[in-house]
Design brief:
This protein is of the alpha+beta class. The chain has helices at residues 2-5, 18-27, 122-170, 172-184, 223-265, 271-281, 319-328, 357-369, 414-422; strands at 31-42, 45-46, 50-57, 60-67, 72-79, 82-88, 101-102, 105-108, 195-204, 210-216, 302-306, 312-316, 334-338, 346-348, 378-385, 389-390, 401-402, 406-411. Helix content is 38%, strand content 24%. Strand 11 and strand 12 form a beta hairpin. Helix 3 packs parallel to helix 6, helix 4 packs antiparallel against helix 5 and helix 5 (223-265) packs antiparallel against helix 6. The chain is elongated, with a radius of gyration of 35 Å.
């Protein structure tokens, strides 16, 4: 009979899944009074043979039904006019859900090779329950391995992106050198030029003459503004290097740990080992936390980021959330929004009398990113104090008017943007 339940008798499982623990609790201390083969009639058609173990417990007579053809294990209790399913194992189908009525069955003569069931004792009951427990462990193990593989793959992608950022940040010295060359020859470069050809006296030909360097310029900026742009970008990349290095070490360690756990998961044999790997890897299935009656968790209408100088930057999540963020902001807080396009409101709390230029630029970059200008090479962002922003009566969600504003033009800077997005605080 055991061959119908499992290929081999599983090892004892001290820590069992909750579903199987419920079954064990219901039968604990019971006495096996009979065992038989039977068939049930459903819709005028007889089912394949099943195994019935009748158990006398403190709560009354219970029947443990093993349906080998369906891979199902059921626990029945007497009910008016028949029997009711009170517990169903992982292999039970929709027709075998707890609470449903079990069809009436008749005993059948077992095949010769299965006659050992006639001498069944308490050991058979333990074997049947243990087989179901092993089935639950196998399913959870498969799910754990799937989640660990997905986690490792996500960490590999993150690490690849960090390496790209590190390569860009490593090129900061090149941007600085471009700025130095252009600044030294700015007076000879006409405004509106798309390129400048300048000599580099730090790089000489064999005959001692300087090599010519071609610098690609933004014609909308003056030569000195182009040089300043390179200086600022080099400074930002240099400032991002420590954060990139720390993040690289963190993700590399997490990836190594995930791969080690995945190897351990492959050797799991019981529920105790399963729970140990889940606990160590934080990969246990997510369960909905019960909410406390009358005390729902408040939803925060904004996302929180940290600028390169350590200032908090708040970004509205939606049009309605933009209104909530605007109401929560103080008069002297900075307010930013991508000019002429739809996007999130951005607030920099307590910026002081003279806002930090790096923080303003970081906030402007986030305003451009969280707007319909995302993906473009650059965007203009308006900024002013919150006290100069007004919500007209009857205006659509997120719509405002503002005065005394200034404009900052930001260009997409992948390394800085990635560092900003990585600084996001977890939502409450």
């Amino acid at each position: 009979m055991l061959a119908a339940l499992a290929d081999e008798r599983p090892t004892s499982i001290e820590s069992t899944p909750r579903s199987q623990a419920t079954l064990r609790s219901a039968l604990e201390g019971g006495t096996l009074t009979s065992a038989r083969f039977e068939t049930a009639s459903t819709g005028g058609r007889e089912s394949d043979p099943a195994i019935r173990l009748t158990v006398e417990t403190e709560s009354g007579i219970r029947a443990l039904i093993a349906e080998p053809h369906a891979g199902a294990l059921l626990l029945l209790a007497p009910a008016e006019g028949g029997e009711r399913i009170v517990w169903a194992g992982s292999g039970a189908g929709a027709a075998r859900r707890p609470g449903s009525t079990y069809p009436k069955a008749v005993a059948v003569e077992p095949a010769a090779e299965d006659r050992q069931v006639e001498g069944a004792d308490q050991e058979l009951l333990r074997d049947a329950v243990a087989a179901e427990e092993a089935s639950g462990v196998a399913a959870r193990k498969k799910d754990l391995e799937k989640r660990l593989r997905a986690k490792a793959q996500k960490l590999r992608r993150t690490l690849a992106a960090i390496e790209e950022d590190a390569a860009r940040a490593g090129a900061a010295s090149g941007d600085r050198r471009k700025g130095e060359l252009l600044a030294a020859h700015a007076s000879s470069v006409p405004r509106g030029a798309r390129e400048a050809r300048v000599p580099d006296w730090a790089d000489l030909d064999p005959d001692g003459s300087p090599r010519e360097v071609v610098l690609r310029l933004d014609p909308a900026l003056s030569p000195r503004e182009n040089a300043e742009r390179w200086f600022k970008r080099a400074q930002r990349y240099a400032a991002a290097l420590p954060r990139i290095a720390a993040r690289r070490a963190e993700v590399s360690a997490a990836l190594e740990a995930a791969q080690a756990l995945l190897e351990r998961a492959g050797s799991i044999r019981d529920a105790e080992g399963l729970r140990a790997v889940e606990a160590e890897g934080g990969a246990a299935p997510r369960q909905k936390r019960p909410s406390r009656p009358g005390r729902p968790q408040p939803r925060v209408p904004y996302r929180t980021f940290t600028s390169a100088s350590g200032a908090r930057i708040l970004v509205g999540r939606s049009a309605r959330d933009n209104d909530e963020l605007l109401r929560a902001a103080r008069g002297n807080d900075l307010w930013l929004h991508a000019r002429g396009v739809q996007g999130s409101h951005v607030i920099v709390p307590d910026p002081g009398a003279a806002p930090d230029p790096r923080t303003v630029r970081d906030a402007a970059l986030l305003a451009a990113h969280f707007s319909s200008a995302r993906g473009s090479e650059g965007a203009e962002v308006a900024w002013t104090r919150r006290k100069h922003v007004r919500k007209p009566k009857g205006a659509a969600a997120g719509a405002v008017t503002f005065t005394q504003d200034r404009t900052i033009r930001v260009r997409l800077d992948d390394a800085v943007l990635r560092a900003l997005l990585a600084s996001e605080e977890a939502a409450v």
